[in-house]
Write a structure and sequence with these properties.
Residues 158-239, 282-330, 374-424, 456-505 form the PKD domain. It comes from Methanoculleus sediminis. InterPro entries: 6-blade_b-propeller_TolB-like, Ig-like_fold, PKD/Chitinase_dom, PKD_dom, PKD_dom_sf. Pfam families: PKD_4. This protein is mostly beta strands and 505 residues long. The chain has five domains: 4-117, TolB, C-terminal domain (Neuraminidase), CATH 2.120.10.30; 146-239, Immunoglobulin-like (Sandwich); 249-330, Immunoglobulins (Immunoglobulin-like, Sandwich); 339-421, Sandwich (Immunoglobulin-like), CATH 2.60.40; 429-503, Immunoglobulin-like, CATH 2.60.40. 0% of the residues lie in helices and 54% in strands. The strands form eleven sheets. Strands 1-5-4-3-2 form a five-stranded antiparallel β-sheet, with no helix packed on it. A five-stranded antiparallel β-sheet has the order 10-17-16-13-14, with no helix packed on it. The chain has a five-stranded mixed β-sheet with strand order 28-34-33-30-31, with no helix packed on it. The radius of gyration is 39 Å and the shape is flat.
Length: 505
């Protein structure tokens, strides 16, 4: 079945061939009819709405023109043909060839805005099916497929959809919804309004909801643009009952200090209680100021005083989820609060694996305070304490080292520095060869690795030596001499070869 998308299309200017009232064969025509330069077919009319098939995009699509408002709407937009539309009030029907066979599609222009495919199986009771029409129930996926749009006065429009996880939720599990909207025109999304099908509602692009009973729920997202334009999307979500042997949990957490101050570190610790043979798989923190965290323990620094709602979402290894939220009040620092600026010195910027890097921390303090703690995070999961620290990395890569200095009034400051760990190059090797011509000798070296030759050393076998890739030597007596070439590479490795020189006078 074709995906239904209603989009506003700019009305073309009237072309030649416009008919006016009073022309022969057109009795009773009260206003001009605008003729568009497209291949049009199978028009039908109901009130001020005219529907027709149009071939302007290279295949047959269904369009609607409202003669009163002068606006044209595209009802279908895919690569398959949609033909033979007919309209009655707010119902439009046409033939759809997207399955390879001609199916009948029915669209309700207002209300639930859903398109239904006629089928021969017994009616499975999908809500909203027009009377007398046998319909296929909606297939639940993680992305909506039903969307409508109503342009605003600035002629902006939007197409809405949303996703959710988990894809097959159970009773009392947290379902995370994320809304999406594609906006056509110079407008922005102003509001996101959700209806979860069980009487609950929410607002915002990202929301969560827990269903307390099993069943199929129609979730609707309404998106409003800042010019008043509206688009919406809906989808059915099936909530399954909990397994009989499921675990349960009660989420809770604590934080320290109990009365945190601005720019002070707040440590959050999970205190969730789990019933059943399960274990906690994930912790997700939302600190109420847009920041998030993970793990059974998390830390956060607030830079503004105020009351923040901190939420903890816990998921067990059987999929069960629980959550809780607490209000944390962040107070301004006292007037006599100290401040500091931390810095890091290191003995090298680059190191090899297992080569220690030495760090030294310092803090410039403003106020009558002193440093009570130095905390190091070496960027590879390892940590340390103290004003000085040393750390060796096991693997090559870039690492960011973080130092947090804590003053005796609770104030903290931090600094970062980067360390690059590179593996040492593989040693080079070579094989040498000699070619001769009379009293001339030429050396060659086949090098394996990123190295080059730094020295060619010759031993002519008669006590004489030479250097260079090309040398000459005159022997003073007849005989057979062993000529030896030693090649030295710039990493210190060498290779050697010999040849025989036969001297006859």
């Amino acid at each position: 079945m074709a995906v239904i998308s209603i989009a506003v299309i700019a009305t073309a200017a009237p072309q030649s061939g416009t008919f006016a009232s009073g022309e022969p064969g057109m009795p009773g025509l009260s206003e001009p009819l605008e003729i568009y330069p497209n291949n049009l077919s199978h028009a039908d009319i109901s009130g001020s709405r005219i529907v027709y098939s149009d071939y302007r995009n290279g295949n047959w699509d269904i369009f609607l023109f409202n003669h009163t408002s002068g606006r044209e709407y595209q009802l279908t937009n895919d690569s398959y043909d949609q033909m033979n539309p007919t309209i009655s009030c707010d119902l439009v029907a046409w033939y759809d060839n997207s399955t390879g066979a001609w199916d009948l599609v029915l669209l309700k222009l207002h209300g639930d805005d859903a398109a239904y495919q006629v089928c021969t199986a017994p009616d499975e009771g999908r809500p909203g099916c027009p009377a007398g029409v046998v319909c296929i129930p909606a297939t639940t996926t993680t992305t909506t497929t039903t969307t409508t749009t109503t342009p605003g006065p600035d002629n902006c429009s939007c197409t809405a959809n949303f996703t959710w996880s988990p894809e097959s939720p159970t009773v009392n599990i947290t379902v995370n919804f994320t809304g999406n909207a594609t906006v056509d025109g110079d407008c922005n999304v102003q509001t996101w309004a959700w209806s979860f099908g069980d009487g609950a509602t929410a607002s915002g692009q990202d929301v969560t909801h827990n269903y307390t009973s099993e069943g199929t729920y129609t979730v609707r997202l309404n998106v409003t643009l800042d010019d008043g334009g509206v688009c919406n999307a809906s989808e059915n979500i099936t909530v399954s009952p909990l397994p009989t042997d499921n675990c349960s949990c009660t989420a809770d957490f604590t934080w320290s200090p109990q009365s945190p101050v601005v720019n002070g570190t707040v440590d959050f610790t999970d205190q969730t209680t789990v019933l059943g043979d399960c274990a906690i798989q994930t912790w997700v923190w939302n600190f109420g100021d847009g920041a998030t965290g993970e793990g059974g323990a998390a830390s956060h620094i607030y830079d503004t005083a105020g009351t923040y709602t901190v939420r903890l979402n816990v998921t067990l290894d059987d999929g069960t989820a629980c959550n809780t939220s607490r209000d944390v009040i962040i107070v301004p620092p006292p007037e006599e609060n100290c401040s500091c600026t931390a810095s890091i010195a290191k003995d090298r910027d680059q190191a090899e694996p297992e080569q220690p890097v030495a760090f030294t921390g310092s803090a410039a303090i403003d106020g009558d305070c002193s440093v009570t703690g130095w905390a190091w995070d070496f960027g590879d999961g390892a940590t340390g304490e103290g004003e000085t620290a040393s750390h060796a990395y096991a693997a090559a890569g870039p690492y960011t080292v973080t130092l947090v200095a804590t003053l005796d009034d609770g104030t903290t400051c931090q600094a970062t520095t980067d360390v690059t760990v590179t593996a040492p190059p593989e040693p080079c090797s070579c094989s040498a060869s000699i070619t001769t011509s009379g009293n001339s000798f030429h050396g060659e070296a086949d090098i394996q690795g990123e190295c080059s030759v730094t020295d060619w050393s010759w031993d002519f076998g008669d006590g004489a030596t030479g250097s260079g890739q090309d040398v000459t030597h005159d022997y003073m007596a007849e005989g057979t001499y062993t000529v030896t070439l030693t090649v030295t590479l710039d990493d210190g490795n060498t290779c050697q070869t010999t040849t025989q020189a036969f001297v006859v006078f």
